[in-house]
Amino acid sequence: MGDMGGYRGPSLGVLQEAGVQVGDVVELDVGGELVKGTVVPRYQYNDDSHLVIKLKSGYNVGISVSRISSVKRVSAGERPAFVSQAPKPRSDLPEVAILGTGGTIASRVDYRTGAVHPAISSEDLYSLMPELSDIAVVKPEIVLTVYSENLEPGDWQKIAEKVSEAVSRGVRGVVVTTGTDTMGYTAAALSFALRGIPVPVFVVGSQRSSDRPSSDAYLNLIGAVSMAVSADLSGVYLSMHADTSDDRLAVHRGTRVRKNHTSARDAFQSIGVDPVAFWTRSGIESIATDAPKRGKGGFVAEPRFEQDVALVKFYPSMSTASLEAMAQKGLKGLIIEGSGLGHLNRKNIPTIKRLMDSGGVVCMTTQCIWGRVDMNVYDTGRDLLSAGVIPLEDMLAETALTKLMWVLANSRSPDEAKELMLKNLVGETTERSQQSRAS
């Protein structure tokens, strides 16, 4: 039989006994009631005792195999094919590269089974979003197909290299689509790897899948491509919904943005700074005066990252065991997300000192969303400074992690790495912190 879409155990046995595959139309006898619909895939780690059926209404229903008296295969159903009905692109428009890494923002949905497929051609994207044909010549490329929580530093390197290739062929701008869970890390990592890039790069995703009426996918991608063409910007930005409505996007600096809600469309906020700009269908609003403008040539990507770096959040009763293990392993870099102004239990200071004596670089950020590290106020902070811990001002912990990974891979010594961590390279720190606010 073909792909059984995550079914196993009793549920797989019921399907196999009836000669049914995922995608087939079936009729189930459930306690004397007949239920007709299409067998749809299950997630790999769902239980093994339910079948999932897509009803004619479009809704999915899960049915315990213990309640099913019989399974009748009605038909294989009409195997749907995605028919491209793309408008003809205009040759006079600039080219924008769209690099896909996973997620559903630039995907099409098979409404019969609910499966999501990436839009792998210009024709696919034009069919899904005809408006793109009046904005740019889009050149999509699937770089990776992974959930964003599975992205690693080596993947950031691949993405950065693909962006660099696109820039070398003269694209007007680049859009990187990815899942939202680690989108802040990806935007920060690309900000360092693509330092000095002469065109804008917009990292975008969608909080809600493209088959939902409330999806933010359409506006996010249309807005990102539009800005890639028209915005007088260079550098890396994260662009997502500015509020709960569906008509305005906020453009965040890649190193100053954080996901602050699990599912809201406006989950991403600029921290410690205002958004660089806002976008509506009427165009770009109020680009920050200090935002870098488009440039020319001379760009060389530095996409390497050191993976042997950790981010540790201090908490009350935190033992020294985890830090001891890191010190013994010879960890190359450590970001501490300390309490308040940059503290942790002082019993950990000797371990941190040993880690640094072995060549590791240790930096301090704060768990607080707003404000900055100041380790000169209390004894613990001063002792950490004396031990050699580097205070990172108001740098976000996620940004600090990606910066240290990048710095260690692109510097020649721990001393040079420490100097680079204290420099504001791509707007990762500010001179003055804002008060708590929502962007």
Separation of termini? Answer: 52 Å
The CATH topology name of the largest domain reads Rossmann fold
Portion in helices = 10-25%
- CATH class division of the largest domain: Alpha Beta
Q: Total strand count, please?
A: 21
Name the CATH superfamily classification of the largest domain: L-asparaginase, N-terminal domain
Low-confidence region ranges: none
- Rounded to the nearest angstrom, the radius of gyration is 25 Å
Topology, element by element:
Blueprint: H1 9-18, E1 25-30, E2 33-39, E3 50-54, E4 60-64, E5 68-75, E6 95-100, E7 107-109, E8 116-118, H2 122-128, E9 137-142, H3 153-168, E10 173-177, H4 183-193, E11 200-204, H5 217-230, E12 235-241, E13 249-253, E14 257-259, E15 268-270, E16 277-280, E17 283-285, E18 309-313, H6 321-329, E19 333-338, H7 349-357, E20 361-366, H8 379-387, E21 390-391, H9 397-409, H10 414-421
Parallel strand pairs: 6-9, 6-10, 10-11, 11-12, 18-19, 19-20, 20-21
Antiparallel strand pairs: 1-2, 1-5, 2-3, 3-4, 7-8, 12-13, 13-16, 14-15, 16-17
